[in-house]
Every structure is written in C-alpha cells, then in structure tokens.
Write a structure and sequence with these properties.
The chain is an all-alpha fold. It is built from five helices and no strands. Helix 3 packs across helix 4. It starts with a helix and ends with a helix. InterPro entries: SpoVIF.
C-alpha cells in the first residue's frame, strides 16, 4: 500500500471510527453486488450506518439509495461528504 492509500484509509478511519480492515471487508463483500437492486443497496447503507454507529433517517436512506441506483452520485469528495452528513 502506498502512502496516498495509507493516508486515505487513515483519514476515513479517523472520521468514521471504522478500521481499514472493516472497510476492505465491506468492499470485498459488494464487489459483485447489483447496485441497481434496491434491497442490496439498502442493506449496504444500513450495514455501513451500523458500523459507524450512526442512524440514517428513512428520508436520507431513500435519497442515498436512489442516488446509487440511478448512478447519480457526486464525484467530488466534498459533495459526497455533504450527501452523507446526517445532520
């Protein structure tokens, strides 16, 4: 793992309290997932919320799921951060 990758994971771990190992487990578990399937995407959103100790309101979950299913996710980090904020 290069320094950029290590820094990326360190930053995520610091902000979310989710370990690099857990992040990689999630990534591995969804590598062949159907991201057009509502149930699959909801399960992933709930799993990540649980790992981070956050509750995702139904309205926010619906918005995230819809964005993933329609492939309408923001591409820049700040927009992604804003989308996933739970405030």
């Amino acid at each position: 793992m290069n320094d950029n990758q290590k820094g990326f994971f360190d930053n995520i771990e610091k902000q979310t309290k989710v370990s690099k190992t857990d992040i990689l487990k999630i990534a591995d578990s969804v590598k062949d997932a159907n991201f057009k399937d509502d149930a699959t995407v909801r399960k992933l959103v709930r799993q990540i919320a649980q790992m981070t100790g956050r509750q995702v309101p139904k309205e926010k979950e619906d918005k995230i799921v819809q964005a993933i299913i329609t492939n309408n996710m923001p591409l820049d980090f700040q927009s992604l951060t804003n989308m996933f904020k739970l405030k």
